[in-house]
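forwarding from the other thread:

> can someone predict this with arginine?

sure thing
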Amino acid sequence: MRLWGGRFEGLSDERMAEFTRSIDFDHVLALDDIAGSIAHVHGLGRAELLAPDEVETLVRGLAELRADVAAGKLTWDPALEDIHMNLEVALRERVGPVAGRLHTGRSRNDQVATDMRLWLRRTIDGLDASIVVMEQALVGLAERDGDAILPGMTHIQPAQPVLFAHHLLAYVEMFERDRGRLADCRRRANVSPLGSGALAGAGYPLDREGTAAELGFDGVTANSLDGVSDRDFVIEAMAAFALSMVHLSRFAEEITWWSNPRLGFVRVSDAFSTGSSMMPNKKNPDPAELVRGKAARVIGELTGLLALMKGLPLAYQKDMQDDKPPLFDAASTLDMSLRVMAGMVATLTVNREKMRAAAGEGFTTATAVADALVRKGVTFRAAHHIVATLVAEADRAGITLDALDDATIAAALSASDDSIALALVGDAAVAADLRVAAGLEGALAGCDVIGGTAPRRVASALAAAKGRLGL
Ligand code: ARG
């Protein structure tokens, strides 16, 4: 039964067979393997290594196998070790001994490398679509509730107010970069190793470029040793997956905090919450927590792959078979995480009042007040000092900065060593301007640069994002 068993005596030890086989996980490559085989058969035909009727028979058999795989009708035999040998034997059962010609000029080493590239290519396309759905959910929320005002934080301390839409669009930027990384990885992965043979190059004049073109590859690998043993494309993809999970986990963490009743900025819909088996009051944002947790898993899988390849000599080594479980798992984990987070975001309820109240806590408009003084000619350092005095006064009085009276403002200005600040003492219009800057709307409007949170800047960023996403 073993296709490689010619020089072997006796049977494989059961433990060895179970330990070394990959069919339990590489069966997901079946359609890619068949696509590669069909292109290879056509190539063998062009090289006149197969007669036209042989090409026809083999392609017909492979097409039948493809239909059976798609319909879930093919079963895998663990004794046949991997997907490649399962399919070769299944083909022989269908078309007879001519199946023995399929493996001419091909090794499982260039075959599996081809399969993996084909699999990755279509998986990246699917993930790209899932990232777009996530971005669309973020943009949808930004349109619905984007004019809510959020307390922007640094060091998890109140810093400056930002539009909720601005915050959401920050994640859209991250996910757009993720898409770029995946596209970049896809481009480098999209070359054909077929014809590399086991390691030295196929022993026949195969038209590698024609076969590559048939499979939709942009070209062929340039070195047969590298062609069979390169797994950079796997690692690059894993790095992109892990980073995307990191982005999701950051947003997941924010949702868990925002939905805590103490903050109450958002409410996660019941459809995306779970309860407690003991505490009847509980509503937990489980999916967000799990996304945060699963980011750890994908990071671990990336690290595992780097460790797997580290120190492997050329060319193919069996270690490399173990690239598959982590790659397949990471891709499906990312896809599921994107899809569940998109659903959670699309059904989130925003409490603008609670957000707004929090946005004003902690004197978050202080920087805007200092900026307003600078616009009147005061040095930034002097303005910083004056506003710090105002913050201390407001804190003592238990009021916000936009409620400070003219006398308190005059006192802070007159304590300054800045000549322009001193000239502003007692000017009621200046005090009024500072109070406007100290309001949430005034503070937002002040950050009027490309990429800033001023409403008109956010509106154009939102329009740009919608354009990119075809919304
Ligand atoms: N199942 C193997 C893998 O995934 C296929 C390649 C095996 N090559 C070999 N020479 N044993 O890596």
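The chain is about 65% helix and 5% strand. thats all i got for now
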